[in-house]
Amino acid sequence: MWIPKTISTTFDKLTASVVSSDTISGETVTPYGIAYVPQKGEKAVSLQIGNSNYMIGVCKTPPFELSEGEIGLYSSGGASIILKNDGKVLINGREFTESEGE
Questions:
Q1: Which residues, 6 or more positions from 82, have their beta carbon under 8 angstroms from its beta carbon?
Q2: How far is the C-alpha of 51 from the C-alpha of 9, rounded, in Å?
Q3: Model-level pTM?
Q4: Ordered per-residue pLDDT tens for the chain, 102 residues
C-alpha cells in the first residue's frame, strides 16, 4: 500500500495524506467483513474525494512478525489471529492445524 509520509499528494481530484485520527473525521473504509475504529492520536491515511473524507488505514507496525503472504489480525488489547503460510492458524499464540478441526 502506498502511504505518503509527510505531505499531501494530489492525483487528479483525489488527495491522500497522513493525519492524526483526532484531527480529521471521515468514514472508515475497510475490506468486506472487517471493521475497526482507530485509537485517538494514531496516524491514519485519509483520502479526500470531493468534500468527503475516507479513512483508508492506520500507520502502525503489527505486534508480530509476518512472512510474505501471511495475514494477521490484532486488537489493541492483545488478541490476535495469524494465518501462516504452512496452513497453521495462531489464535492468541496458540497453534491450530487442520487435523485438530476433524
A1: 64, 66, 70, 71, 72, 73, 89, 90
A2: 16
A3: 0.65
A4: 444 444 344 444 445 555 654 566 678 888 888 888 877 777 888 888 888 888 888 888 888 999 999 999 999 899 999 999 999 999 999 999 876 555
In terms of Cα–Cα distance, which of 75, 51, 41, 99 is closest to 91?
A: 75
Q: Which amino acid is at 24?
A: I
Question: How far apart are alpha carbons 100 and 87 in whole angstroms?
Answer: 12
CA atoms within 13 A on the CB side of 85: 6
Question: Residue 92 has which C-alpha cell?
Answer: 492468541
Q: How far apart are CA 84 and CA 53, in angstroms?
A: 34
Return the amino acid letter for 58. Answer: V
Q: Which residues contact 66 (CB under 8 A, 6 or more apart)?
A: 72, 82
Q: Which secondary-structure segment (H or E) carries 16?
A: strand 14-20
Query: In angstroms, how far is CA 81 from the centroid of its own chain?
Result: 14
